[in-house]
């Protein structure tokens, strides 16, 4: 299958490029930049992959690539990420995340690309009342909106756009609500990145706040497995088009620190027990995600525990540093 990955030079996109190439597919990447050093190391074995530079907001560019590459499916992973960034750049967040979604849907509709897999986020959720987050939970409050600011709002709106194209234009759309993806090549800190990478480098890690902040940390390989299953499933319309993809167990940053210390002896990590105002507000949507629907529709379950994922991350990061140190100056 010839698959276009928007955001293909990013963390998730680079892992997906490598996995698709290894599975015998032809991956094609669209991104605003070339892969950085870690992403390039991830996709080094994907010799069949091709990269195109362009903006997800450039509809003509997307159409040209889809025609020239004879694209059969799209995995839409491009976008501006994060609550804080969205508050600093509201217009750019909506322009990129919403019009980018419209553009890939239009390419699929007009060019007959039936299958579209959309990377959504747990940020779409409004919050929870103490239980696991389920896909049918509210995505916003009629008084307070979405607690993840413009980022969460853009994600819930992008899902609605995809579902409208599925209903009225017969596109096979699946929106995967992924959460706290971690592993080698990750760019967002989410506490776990500096903990692991500093420990491998023998450096201390200090956080003034954040100990109670919860995330359903999900290893990138498990997310890739879910995407591959979504691409290869049969054409029977599913009974729902929004699926949680997560480990199914939220952990606090303090718990992650304890795991890193146990797995990487000598890890020097200190994390405060308070929360900033932004963290405290964001905590509302931080809970375990119910993954029963993904099991039922995709036959998918996460395979790596947090400890196993941290070991894999640390090993790949160390190998990357060793390789860099061996290269001639």
Question: Any overview of this molecule?
Answer:
The chain is an alpha/beta fold and 329 residues long. Helices cover 44% and strands 16% of the residues. The protein contains twelve helices and 13 strands. Strands 3-2-1-4-5-6-11 form a seven-stranded parallel β-sheet, with helices on both faces. It has a two-stranded parallel ribbon with strand order 7-10. Helix 3 packs parallel to helix 5. The longest helix has 22 residues.
- How many beta-strand segments? 13
The assigned structural class equals: alpha/beta
Radius of gyration: 19 Å
- Largest sheet composition: 7 strands, parallel
Q: Number of helix segments?
A: 12
Percent helix range = 40-55%
Poorly predicted ranges: none
Morphology: globular
How would you state the average pLDDT, rounded? 94
């Amino acid at each position: 299958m010839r698959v276009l990955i928007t955001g293909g030079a990013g963390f998730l996109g680079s892992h997906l490029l490598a996995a698709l190439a290894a599975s015998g597919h032809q991956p094609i990447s669209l991104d605003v930049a070339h892969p950085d050093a870690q992403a390039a190391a991830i996709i080094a074995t994907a010799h069949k992959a091709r990269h195109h530079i362009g903006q997800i907001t450039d509809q003509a560019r997307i159409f040209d690539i889809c025609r020239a590459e004879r694209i059969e499916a799209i995995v839409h992973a491009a976008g501006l990420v994060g609550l804080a960034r969205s508050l600093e750049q509201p217009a750019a967040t909506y322009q990129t995340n919403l019009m980018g979604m419209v553009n890939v849907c239009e390419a699929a509709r007009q060019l007959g690309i039936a299958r579209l897999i959309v990377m959504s986020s747990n940020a779409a959720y409004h919050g929870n009342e103490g239980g696991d987050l389920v896909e049918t939970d509210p995505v916003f409050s009629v008084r307070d909106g979405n607690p993840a600011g413009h980022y969460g709002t853009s994600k819930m709106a992008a899902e609605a756009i995809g579902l409208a194209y599925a209903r009225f234009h017969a596109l096979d759309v699946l929106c995967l609500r992924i959460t706290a993806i971690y592993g080698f090549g990750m760019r967002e800190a989410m506490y776990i990145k500096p903990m692991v990478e500093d420990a491998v480098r023998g450096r201390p890690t200090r956080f003034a706040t954040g100990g109670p902040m919860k995330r359903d940390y999900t290893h990138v390989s498990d997310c890739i497995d879910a995407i591959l299953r979504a691409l290869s499933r049969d054409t029977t319309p599913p009974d729902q088009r929004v699926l949680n993809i997560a480990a199914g167990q939220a952990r606090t940053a303090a718990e992650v620190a304890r795991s890193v210390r146990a797995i990487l002896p000598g890890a020097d990590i200190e994390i405060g027990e308070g929360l900033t105002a932004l963290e405290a507000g964001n905590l509302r949507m931080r809970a375990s995600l119910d993954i029963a629907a993904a099991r039922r529709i995709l036959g998918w379950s996460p395979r790596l525990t947090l400890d196993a994922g941290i070991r894999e991350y640390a090993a790949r990061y160390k190998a990357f540093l060793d390789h860099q140190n061996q290269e001639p100056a």
